[in-house]
């Protein structure tokens, strides 16, 4: 039963190809209908914000807007959503850059760990850099014909393991599933990174193929019941996890009536103005309560261990992007990272969204 529940949660639904021909924004007597297409389930971390946006857009439009929602890769498979938006076969989608590393080299400059503290502040950082660094906007809007409606992220990603992690030494040699730049963190901390699609993780843990998981945000990990096999959730001091973007095809956006565009912009302002924090604070607290009741053990590395981990990751991680990704692609990586540093200095101290371990300690 647990296995079947996981498969259901991961949502790899059959027959997605049959829906592939539904393209374009539909207008009829001032009605606007479009598709929102996500590779994750509606209970995954960023989905809570996406659902709020879509619900409010329909509500505030007074019935003008109707969104057809396709969750959990039910329309396009993992890795197909960026080209689907580019080609306008799916007008709007959640995009996680780690799945498109070759297609989003500039955006990869926003992916790092051990550089800031709060997930709500990461939204502000991404927004500022998108507004100030033209190559980042061009990558989305010109290369992929996708307007970033709003930046989002996967809040926090504890190190999830079958056995307790009390120090960095406990990570060495462990086989840990990674995602995107999280694989680099695992390797630098002495673990063995194992690339693996999310729907395979539960079974791999169950069979002992994996010792742990990293780069799986807390909410999604609990929703996918990974804690049934790996109940130890450790805060290693890495900061917020995995920036992502909810994007819309530029032609679809241009076809929206002015009032619908205005409503979208109003909602985006509310997201950056605190709505993200309000939504995620409640969800995180609910999931901490659920996780604790179902046997999750929260751990936090001490400050000395966190500093040792940070020294292994930064600035090596950022410098590697500058040298091996930005430079070959003709990107001014140093300028982009300087803008990021400025944005972090401006926003991070104002962030308020607690990590799951911090919430657990308050209970």
UniProtKB/TrEMBL annotation:
Pfam families: DctP. Coiled coil: none annotated. PROSITE patterns: TAT. It comes from the Bacteria. InterPro entries: DctP_fam (IPR018389), TAT_signal (IPR006311), TAT_signal_bac_arc (IPR019546), TRAP_DctP_sf (IPR038404). Keywords: Signal. One of its GO terms (biological process) is transmembrane transport. This is Extracellular solute-binding protein. The lineage of its organism: Bacteria, Pseudomonadati, Pseudomonadota, Betaproteobacteria, Burkholderiales.
């Amino acid at each position: 039963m647990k296995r079947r529940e996981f498969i259901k949660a991961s949502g790899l639904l059959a027959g997605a190809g049959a829906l592939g021909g539904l393209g374009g924004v539909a207008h009829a007597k001032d009605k606007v209908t479009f598709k929102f297409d996500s590779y994750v389930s509606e209970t995954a971390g960023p989905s809570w914000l996406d659902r709020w946006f879509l619900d409010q857009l329909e509500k505030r439009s007074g019935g003008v807007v109707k969104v057809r929602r396709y969750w959990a890769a039910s329309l396009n498979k993992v890795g197909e959503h960026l080209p689907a938006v580019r080609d306008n076969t799916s007008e709007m989608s959640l995009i996680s850059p780690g799945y498109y590393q070759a297609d989003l080299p500039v955006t990869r400059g926003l992916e790092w760990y051990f550089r800031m503290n709060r997930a709500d502040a990461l939204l502000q950082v991404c927004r500022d850099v998108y507004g100030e660094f033209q190559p980042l906007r061009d990558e989305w809007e010109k290369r992929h014909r996708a307007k970033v409606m709003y930046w989002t992220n996967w809040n926090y990603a504890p190190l999830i393991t079958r056995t307790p992690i009390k120090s960095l030494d406990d990570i060495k040699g462990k086989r840990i599933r990674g995602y995107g730049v999280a694989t680099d963190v695992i390797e630098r901390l002495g673990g063995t990174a194992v690339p693996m699609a999310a729907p395979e993780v539960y079974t791999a843990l169950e069979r002992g193929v994996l010792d742990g998981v990293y780069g799986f945000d807390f909410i999604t990990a609990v929703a996918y019941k990974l804690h049934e096999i790996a109940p130890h959730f450790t805060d290693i001091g890495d900061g917020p996890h995995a920036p992502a973007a909810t994007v819309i095809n530029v032609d679809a956006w241009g076809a929206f009536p002015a009032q619908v565009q205005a409503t979208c912009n109003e909602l985006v302002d509310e997201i950056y103005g605190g709505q993200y924090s309000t939504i995620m604070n409640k969800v995180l607290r609910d999931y901490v309560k659920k996780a604790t009741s179902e046997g999750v053990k929260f751990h936090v590395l001490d400050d000395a261990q966190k500093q040792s981990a940070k020294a292994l990751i930064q600035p090596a991680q950022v410098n590697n992007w500058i040298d091996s990704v930005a430079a070959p692609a003709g990107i001014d990586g140093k300028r982009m990272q300087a803008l990021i540093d400025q944005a972090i200095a401006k926003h991070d101290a104002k962030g308020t969204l607690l990590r799951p371990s911090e919430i657990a300690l308050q209970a």
